[in-house]
Amino acid sequence: MLVFENVREMQKWSLDQKKAGKTIGLVPTMGYLHAGHLALVKEAAKASDIVVVSIFVNPMQFGQGEDFEEYPRDISRDISLLKAENVAAVFAPSARDMYPVGYSTFLEVTGEMTNKLCGKKRPGHFKGVTTVVSKLFNICIPDVAYFGQKDIQQVIVIEKMVKELNFSVKIERVPIVREASGLAMSSRNVYLDEVQKEAALVLYKALQYAEKLINGGEKDTAVLSKGIESIVKAEKLAIIDYIEIVDDVDLANVANLSNIKGSVVIALAVKIGSTRLIDNLVVEV
Known about the structure:
Elements lengths: L1 E3 L2 H13 L4 E6 L5 H13 L2 E6 L19 H10 L4 E3 L3 H4 L13 H4 L9 H16 L3 E5 L3 H13 L5 E5 L19 H7 L1 H14 L5 H13 L4 E10 L15 E10 L2 E10 L1
Parallel strand pairs: 1-4, 2-3, 2-5, 3-4, 5-6
Antiparallel strand pairs: 7-8, 8-9
Helix pairs in contact: 6-7, 9-10
């Protein structure tokens, strides 16, 4: 397995693979890999000749007061895990190489899609996401890029960017991978102690309750949201950031499920102690 730290070297290698007729599957990550990331790698391996994994804790998508410095990192462990998955190359650049001195070029999806959910209290977050992902596409030159459903807003924003800017890469969503308890896999789970991990199960419990109501015929999203809220508030360690039920294509708010043909996203963000967790379910209606 090759490990590239230099942008030019990664790009040249990718171009050489394309010239040789190889297809590239890219899995963009911020490292500290877990089973959720490895599920993306496995999906990429099924459909691509070559799998490339990027490991880059992107400073541009962290706001003031967020956990950029504390974000868990263990590149040696990550490389060992990826070797076991037969990944062809890892791209692990420095921030200095990705954003040289004087860097001033950004890519942003504007409008309601990026100003709600996680974007509401994290201004500039998705500008950082789309900027770095567009750079990764230009450097690694993938045919397909794999993203986890856990970050559903991120996936939908990237899908819009790809469509509107005519990127040739295909975006594949991969379902959420959960711990045996139901807790969605996340690198930030390492921040939780055992009591907090138990409390964090309330996210999935609330989502499952809403899904049960929908399957029972409930169409009013206000009723669904109140049901979710009541379950989460019953957990003393939980503080709700948002509860939203939105369209699966453009994240538009949904008032009544009768108006939807397809699926909706039930999404929530909850703080357990000082750790902000997100989770979601995509439900056919």
